[in-house]
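lol forgot to send this yesterday, sorry. struct tokens for the thing we talked abt
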């Protein structure tokens, strides 16, 4: 299987910044789930690519709503704690995962305390 490279990420995420660190981060992040999910190589490649774009978007957010007069610009990325759901790139990675593991990974973790 081929590794994701910067050109692969730039094909879906238009940015002038180096995406190599985000590719590495995505690979490390997905390593936790890869064997459990059993993704075939082509699917893993696409999930890796979209996840790298997600991490890059968190650093370099995309404009989502631009108004011309009286200038108003909104940028893409949701509140902290949304995980992959915070960007359209992360949402695509979740959509590509037929196992649902990434959707679960993006849910906030809650701690339960019991008082005796």
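and heres what i got for the seq, position by position
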């Amino acid at each position: 299987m081929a590794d994701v490279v910067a050109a692969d990420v730039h094909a879906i995420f238009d940015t002038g910044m180096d995406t190599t660190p985000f590719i590495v981060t995505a690979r490390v992040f997905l390593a936790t789930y890869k064997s459990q999910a059993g993704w075939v190589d082509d699917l893993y490649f696409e999930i890796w690519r979209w996840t790298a774009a997600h991490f890059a978007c968190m650093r370099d957010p995309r404009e989502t709503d631009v108004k011309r007069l009286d200038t108003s610009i909104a940028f893409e990325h949701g509140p902290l704690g949304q995980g992959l759901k915070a960007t359209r790139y992360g949402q695509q990675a979740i959509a590509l995962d037929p196992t649902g593991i990434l959707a679960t990974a993006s849910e906030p973790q809650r701690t339960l305390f019991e008082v005796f």
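The mean pLDDT is 84. anyway ping me if u want another try
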